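To illustrate the input format used throughout this study, we show a single complete record. The first block contains the structure-token representation of the backbone; no residue identities are included at this stage. The design step must infer an amino acid for every position from geometry alone.
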């Protein structure tokens, strides 16, 4: 069973959170509410999130300050943040949002379809990253145990060479999906999403090099190349 991604919704107004849940429910992911910046930071201590939708104007810790705290933490610094705001003070205000680490900045009222489409891109990228981490972890476990992980339903016990071939095939499938996603993003001209997709492609390239280095005959002294971050 594929685990659902978590999406963090941060807004001090319950009606806004309810509206976001209605828009994003079609994605069939886990939606987590936070009514303040402090509550959002607390949720980020224990859970991993695919994307954060963060209201700018909140009492106490506003969206900009909350984003600054998120980006300072090693655990959360790479989580995409989409700022949502009802105020529009021109380019300078928008620039402040991007400077705080946002991947997108959307003014209210926004098009529900556009917001759902943007969030779905980051959810898909998150799921691909999770799949890559799982495959890399499985590879290490299999190699440490001579190709026998003891886990059922993932890979059958086999020799390392057969394991590498199967993981290479699985990686190829992910690479194909990532390439299709990148082409789709190129057409949408969403610079932030394109940059995130490029980050995923760099990780895929690193994992491909690591697998190639483990292939028999790859050369003496060859060692896996770590994924780029």
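Output of the design step:
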């Amino acid at each position: 069973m594929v685990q659902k991604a978590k999406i963090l919704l941060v807004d001090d107004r319950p009606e806004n959170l309810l509206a976001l849940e209605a828009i994003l429910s079609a994605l069939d992911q886990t939606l987590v509410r936070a009514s303040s910046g402090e509550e959002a930071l607390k949720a980020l201590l224990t859970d991993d999130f695919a994307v954060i939708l963060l209201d700018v104007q909140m009492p106490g810790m506003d969206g900009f300050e909350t984003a600054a705290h998120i980006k300072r933490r090693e655990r959360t610094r790479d989580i995409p943040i989409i700022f949502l705001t009802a105020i529009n003070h021109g380019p300078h205000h928008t620039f402040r949002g991007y400077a705080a680490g946002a991947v997108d900045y959307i003014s209210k009222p926004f098009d529900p379809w556009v917001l759902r489409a943007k969030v779905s891109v980051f959810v898909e990228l998150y799921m691909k990253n999770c799949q890559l981490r799982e495959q890399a972890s499985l590879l290490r476990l299999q190699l440490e145990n001579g190709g026998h992980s003891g886990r059922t339903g993932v890979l059958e016990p086999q020799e390392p060479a057969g394991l590498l071939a199967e993981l290479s095939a699985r990686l190829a499938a992910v690479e194909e999906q990532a390439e299709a996603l990148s082409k789709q993003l190129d057409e949408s001209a969403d610079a932030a999403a394109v940059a995130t997709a490029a980050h995923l492609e760099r990780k895929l390239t690193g994992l491909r090099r690591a697998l190639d280095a483990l292939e028999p005959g790859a050369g003496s002294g060859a060692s896996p190349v770590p994924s780029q971050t």
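Structural context for interpreting the output: The first strand starts at residue 6 and ends at 10. The mean pLDDT is 77.
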